[in-house]
Amino acid sequence: MDNASTIEDLEEDLYFMANVLPEDSGLPFVVWVFPKQASHDVRVKVSSGPTPQTFVASVSVRPDVSVVAGKLSNRDLALVREWIELNKEIIIDHWEGKMPSSKAVVNALKPLPKP
Asked: 115 in a domain, yes or no?
């Protein structure tokens, strides 16, 4: 695959992804949710900080919440797991195309309760 195809694929992926900012998720970093675009099952991507940056991990939603690519600390994985469990139905609905609007998805997601 040449660089032009890679950039086009990345731009298309980012177009479909909904970035969920810390003020919307209650997490200390950005999480990305998106509709199905690959042969694997539901995943979310995790950024390294409170602004949309490079992904540091890809996390499966089912059957179990686990890191499938990249790395997260145990603390961050526990937070992502809690947030996914709180929003699993919405994340899966978006993945399955039942909620195609990123704005609708972000508005439906629940933040983690404040400690």
From this structure: no
How confident is the model over 35-74, as pLDDT tens digits?
887 788 999 999 988 877 778 999 999 999 999 999 999 9
Token output for 102 = 């990123």
Closest CA to 110 of 20, 49, 19: 20
Closest CA to 24 of 15, 16, 33: 33
What integer pLDDT is reported at residue 50 of this predicted model? 80
Q: Is residue 19 domain-resident?
A: yes
- Domain assignment present for residue 113? The answer is no
Mean pLDDT for 83-110 is: 92
Tell me the pTM.
0.83
* List of residues 6+ apart from 50 with CB closer than 8 A: 21, 22, 28, 29, 30
What is the residue-wise DSSP string for 66-110?
EEEEE---HHHHHHHHHHHHHHHHHHHHHHTTSS--HHHHHHHPP
